[in-house]
Amino acid sequence: MVDAGWSFSAGLVIGGFSLMLLWGLLWLIVGTIGLVRQTCGWAVVLSSVSSSIIAGLSIGGVFWVTDSARFSSPALQVGLMAVPLALMVASFCRLEDGRRIGPSLVEGSRAMLHQLLGLHQEGCGHCHEQP
After folding, report:
1. Is 122 among the domain residues?
2. Exposed e or buried b for every residue in 54-69, given b needs 16+ CB within 10 A?
3. N or C: the chain end with fewer CB closer than 10 Å?
């Protein structure tokens, strides 16, 4: 039972840091494009690099500490699926103003993407508005 708990915990840590790594790499790409276009500064790029490095080192540390036989255990695989499942369940919950968390996150990410890439600046043709 303790072995299954350790495997599940390792799966949770690997799954969580994997999502953090992917999110950091996504914003690293967006920030680099924004930096080249001169629509955002170095802060976005540096924070994306630091979060990606922290997540990558943490995943590497878990792989280094964990016994290789544990990676085939069902408890670790359930732990890997637990973080995305928890995020999916949380996306259906509501914020204080009544909006759902998932669509709010998507809309906020889209607005940040547009701001960092400079898609809608002064003189915008309002291509983002629906008729």
Report:
1. no
2. ebbebbeebeeebeee
3. C
Please count the structural domains in the chain. 1
What's the rounded Cα separation, in Å, for the pair 8 and 3?
9
Category of 95 on φ-ψ map: left (φ > 0), alpha (ψ -120 to 50) or beta: beta
Per the structure, the complete domain to which residue 106 belongs is given by 2-117
Q: Which of 38-42, 86-90, 95-99, 126-130 has the lowest mean pLDDT?
A: 126-130
pLDDT for 126 equals: 53
Residue 124 lies in a domain: no
Residue at 127 is within a domain:
no
